[in-house]
Design a protein that fits this description.
The protein is mainly alpha-helical and 274 residues long. The chain is built from nine helices and six strands. The strands form three sheets. A two-stranded antiparallel sheet has the order 1-2. The protein has a two-stranded antiparallel sheet with strand order 3-4. It is globular and about 55 Å long.
Length: 274
């Protein structure tokens, strides 16, 4: 990972900084919306912090068990060196969700409504975080004008592909939150949308392959999508609600901000990574 500066024995990395910025931005808007809807923002803040910790642990566990188990069997202490890299987004989603569900059950929060409300801001935080990720894609032709140059070699800017698609999903989820057809629709669309995005981006990356051009990440995304579709079929019958029409002004304003965010993020990405 790319270090920005050091304070004594501690180094601050670009990816870590962008994760912090992404989490803070997503958290700010999530709590703002939650407060308007009558939620206790202090309780939700505790839940977000615990879910984030659960997500990091889950991301590390799945990475160690699925992507590189032989290395960590030989070097077990390296499991704790997260600053060296090695997190699985699928494990992060699973770990964060499990901790979040336990927290909401304990605090007696409406699970589906709360998850729906959180979904747009989770993907927003993920998109912003990806600006700082330096796990680049597969090699690419030097003629491609969108390439990223790393020590004289050219790669797919897989992070840029992902955060651009994440922002588009954020725009959709934000508008869907205001006009959903059943409780749980927004969070399920988040899972399906993001897993599809990961599947698309994987074609521009290098990961352990299991069949032809399909990687382990593709398999986990496919399984996740199937599970989400099963829940979707169940919830749309169990919790139907009458959707509210979103005004054209709100739709136009949302996409205006999305395109602005995409441009600013692209500029920041190439300035920081290129």
């Amino acid at each position: 990972m790319k270090p920005l500066f050091s304070i004594g024995p501690f180094s601050i990395y670009l990816f870590g900084l962008m994760i912090a910025i992404g989490v803070l931005v997503g958290l700010y808007f999530f709590l703002k919306v939650a407060k308007k809807r009558g939620y206790d923002d202090k309780v939700l803040l505790d839940g977000v912090i615990l879910s984030f910790i659960g997500g990091v642990i889950g991301a590390r566990i799945i990475y160690v068990l699925v992507y590189n188990p032989s290395y960590y069997l030989s070097n077990p202490m390296d499991v704790f060196f997260i600053h060296n890299g090695g997190l699985s987004i699928h494990g992060g989603l699973l770990g964060g969700l499990l901790v979040g569900l336990l927290f909401m059950k304990k605090k007696k929060l409406p699970v589906l409504k709360t998850l729906d409300m959180a979904a747009p801001f989770i993907i927003l935080a993920q998109g912003i975080s990806r600006i700082g990720c330096d796990v680049f894609g597969a090699p690419i032709s030097s003629d491609a004008f969108w390439k990223i140059n790393v020590d004289g070699e050219y790669f797919h800017p897989a992070q840029a592909y992902e955060f651009l698609l994440n922002y588009l999903l954020f725009g959709y989820l934000w508008l869907r939150l205001q006009s959903k057809h059943y409780h749980g629709q927004v969070i399920l669309h988040y899972f399906i949308g993001f897993l599809i995005i990961r599947g698309i981006v994987e074609f521009a990356r290098i990961n352990p392959m299991i069949f032809g051009p399909f990687s382990v990440s593709h398999l986990m995304s496919f399984i996740g999508i199937i599970i989400a579709l099963i829940f979707m079929n169940h919830l749309k019958k169990k919790n139907p609600i009458k959707p509210v029409n979103v005004e054209r002004y709100e739709i136009a304003k949302t996409w205006f901000y999305i395109w602005g965010l995409m441009i600013v993020s692209l500029v920041a990405y190439y300035l920081l990574q290129g």
